Amino acid sequence: MGRKEMIAMLLAGGEGKRLGVLTKDLAKPAVYFGGKYRIIDFTLSNCAHSGIDTVGVLTQYQPLELNRYLGIGSPWGLDRRDGGMTILPPFMKQKGGVWYKGTANAIYQNMAFIERYDPEYVLIISGDHIYKMDYDLMLQHHKNSGADVTIAGIQVDWKEASRFGVMHLDDEDRITAFEEKPKNPSSNIASMGVYIFSWKALQKYLIYDEANRSSSHDFGKDVIPAMMRDGLQFYAYPFKGYWKDVGTIESLWEANMDLLEEEPSLELNDPEWRIYSVSPNQPAQFASSTAVITSSLITEGCVLEGTVERSILFYGVQVEENTYIAESVIMPNVRIGAGARIHRAIIGEGAVIQAGVTIGSPDDEAITVIAVEQYVEKEHELLEVELP
């Protein structure tokens, strides 16, 4: 097994409770996004463009569909013998096994996998964020600063800061303080959940943390504070691009709508940094003479006879005549009957919206969510939706 300078450990076991019915039977990284992608495609594509050819994907919650989608990693160039993609679920050991107890424990349980490649550095990333980043540039920053730990950071709105770990920096981007999801944040420089650790330093603290019975075995709550207390060198890697934690219905909807701006801050039509995904291999889309489409992303396999405004339709969606869809995300293989009206909604995969049904209102800011394979009839429509 060849030695690797840096390998990636991708945390993809998130339950995604705040996404409600969309993640009832699906791991959060496998949720659909942007017309033809899954959320995890962005992190894996970043690895591909950054020259990282060894990725351990740590799964836990509802992994069946995610594992099926990932396969052997072919779309991201990770189908290789020396390294490549390895799925790492919790497993039984000689003395028993347990579920991953936290982000740090998940890495601890897979130290043997990391040691196979004897890396100098380990990149810890998450499978549930939308962004484009060159991890190799971050590695060069890590080396040049002499850091033990480098954390990618981005400035967020103050009202959002309590959702993240936040950092205080000096003039040289050295991290002087770190708070994990503070109720009253005193900084709005948020951790993006992208870490580069010098492996020998991290290994020591993972072992220490696992032996600490009072620990919650989390990087932000436990391991990082312990390393900072001991005086290890922490630096931030300032990130100026688009980044979105799509952990809520509102943020998932907003991130999809961001793609429809005249000049989107996240450019998917970029030949220099393609986002790779598993192709659904569908026929070309068809729009009839009655179809009206404006400011929308329409994927292959769609059959359209109605009006679609500022919306995203995944593959295999059928929209019958006299239907009006606005500011909505329609996931794969949805059927929408004639005369339906849909405003500010996320419609789960395989749902059926009967003719004449109205979902949402142009006068209401709420986002309506229809569950996967939900059947919505006109007389029952208010009972069949979830309003976060």
Helix percentage: 10-25%
**Strand fraction band?**
25-35%
Radius of gyration: 22 Å
The number of strands is 30
- Describe the sheet with the most strands: 7 strands, mixed
Distance between the termini: 48 Å
Q: Which blocks of ≥5 consecutive residues have pLDDT under 50? A: 379-388
Oligomer: single chain
Overall geometry: globular
What is the overall number of helices? Answer: 8
Residue-averaged pLDDT: 92
Which structural class do you get from the secondary structure elements? Answer: alpha/beta
Spatial arrangement of strands, main beta sheet: 5-4-1-6-11-8-12
Throw out a few tags for this protein.
19% helix; globular; 30 strands; 6-stranded parallel β-sheet; 388 residues; disordered C terminus; alpha/beta; 7-stranded mixed β-sheet
